[in-house]
Write a structure and sequence with these properties.
By secondary structure, the protein is α/β, with parallel strands linked by helices. The protein has helices at 26-32, 41-46, 50-55, 59-62, 75-80, 107-117, 137-159, 187-199, 216-227, 244-252, 262-268, 300-304, 307-315, 319-345, and strands at residues 11-14, 36-39, 68-71, 83-87, 92-95, 102-105, 121-123, 176-181, 205-207, 236-238, 257-260, 271-274, 277-280. Helix 8 (187-199) runs parallel beside helix 9 (216-227). The structure holds zinc ion (ZN). Residues 293-294, 297, 299, 301-302, 328, 331 line the site of zinc ion.
């Protein structure tokens, strides 16, 4: 339960990088049943700026989104997008990918930014090692992330009630800060990182540092090496995954929350996920195809438009192509998670999760 409504788990969170899920308006996201959105602190910090969002009453109000929001700490984008970053014990200096201007992020400033933005769930500032990481790098990075987690928590506890939109009944702060497990691709480090992060006592835990270019089998291995050391009664969030097949699989491993740019990014490139596998709508073979994208999908796109029309929109570079493709893909992901929740509620649980995903895997 968040101050902006209940979030049923396992849940898929669409990515709204710049306070917008690219191509889809908030009323449509509500209609699709999106319960929680992800916003990126790094992007919002650079544009429009945290102070501006704060003046405008916080992120929920600014983007007119009444349901729950999660913001990441900005760490991952600093490490993946920005240039000339310089990491020290204190924090990280980096250049904006927009205009080359110099900035500094540290646990305290990342918490300050996220408190001002006012998401329901915010993330500790972590360091994400590259893949493959050199010898000793994964441990050093994990130790730094643990020290930064302590600083994040301390700052958060001292400042969490400082903006009015985070105050609940009786003036209690309503934001929750989650810790992040790192440890590279080493199962021993993953276990240690999980145990030491849990000792700090966060209300939820994320598994970070995955989906950074490693093979999928290794991703799964690391999830398995981590998830069993995280308390099952608290939310467990796997950051930045995956395909529809993978999100079902990870839910089966006990993951409660996932986010991924895949459904929205793939949609903009004409790649649609369906119950019969992937459809690349740009292909000429769909030019005369009067069927829907997915006959098993109840979304507003599949109810109304043909593959032929969607192919035409894409080939003509119409803005509507991106909008409709994104709506379908998001709907497919959300329906997949709904089916997983239904399967769990029937008491079938993880063992039968494959039933909600009947088609052969690629
Ligand atoms: Zn559809």
């Amino acid at each position: 339960m968040t101050p902006h409504g209940e979030v049923e788990t396992p849940v898929f969170m669409p990515v709204g990088t710049l306070a917008s899920v690219k191509g889809v308006s908030q009323d449509v996201l509500e209609e699709l049943g999106v319960q929680i959105l992800l916003g990126n602190t790094y992007h919002l910090y650079l544009r429009p700026g945290v102070a501006q969002v704060r003046r405008l009453g916080g992120l929920h109000r600014f983007m007119a989104w009444p349901r729950a929001i999660l913001t990441d700490s900005g760490g991952f984008q600093v490490f993946s997008l920005s240039e000339l970053r310089k990491i020290s014990e204190e924090g990280v200096t980096f250049r904006s990918h927009l205009d080359g201007s110099s900035h500094f992020f540290c646990p305290e400033s990342a918490m300050g930014a996220q408190i001002a933005l006012g998401a329901d769930i915010i993330m500790a500032f972590d360091e994400c090692p590259e893949y493959p990481a050199g010898d000793g790098r994964a441990r050093a990075s994990m130790e730094l992330t643990l020290r930064w987690a302590e600083r994040s928590k301390r700052y958060f506890e001292e400042h969490k009630g400082e903006v009015p939109w985070n105050a609940g009944a009786g003036g209690r702060a309503t934001q929750e800060l989650f810790g992040i497990v790192q440890g590279g691709m080493d199962p021993g480090l993953r276990k240690e990182s999980a145990e030491r992060t849990v000792e700090m006592d966060f209300p939820g835990y994320a598994i970070g540092g995955l989906s950074v270019g490693e093979p999928r089998t290794l991703t799964r291995e690391m999830v398995e090496a981590t998830v069993e050391y995280l308390p099952a009664e608290q939310p467990r969030y796997l950051m930045g995954v995956g395909t529809p097949e993978e999100i079902v699989e990870y839910a089966g491993l006990g993951i409660d929350m996932m986010d991924c740019v895949l459904p929205t990014r793939a949609a903009r490139h004409g790649l649609l996920f369906t119950s019969a596998g992937k459809v690349s709508i740009k292909q000429a073979k769909y030019a005369g195809d009067e069927g829907p994208v997915d006959a098993a999908c109840g979304c507003r796109v599949c109810q109304r438009y043909s593959r032929a029309y969607l192919r035409h929109l894409y080939a003509s570079n119409e803005v509507l192509a991106q909008v409709l493709n994104t709506v379908h893909n998001l709907s497919f992901y959300l329906d997949t998670m709904r089916a997983v929740r239904h399967s769990i509620s029937l008491g079938k649980g993880a063992r039968f999760l494959s039933e909600v995903w009947p088609q052969p895997r690629p």
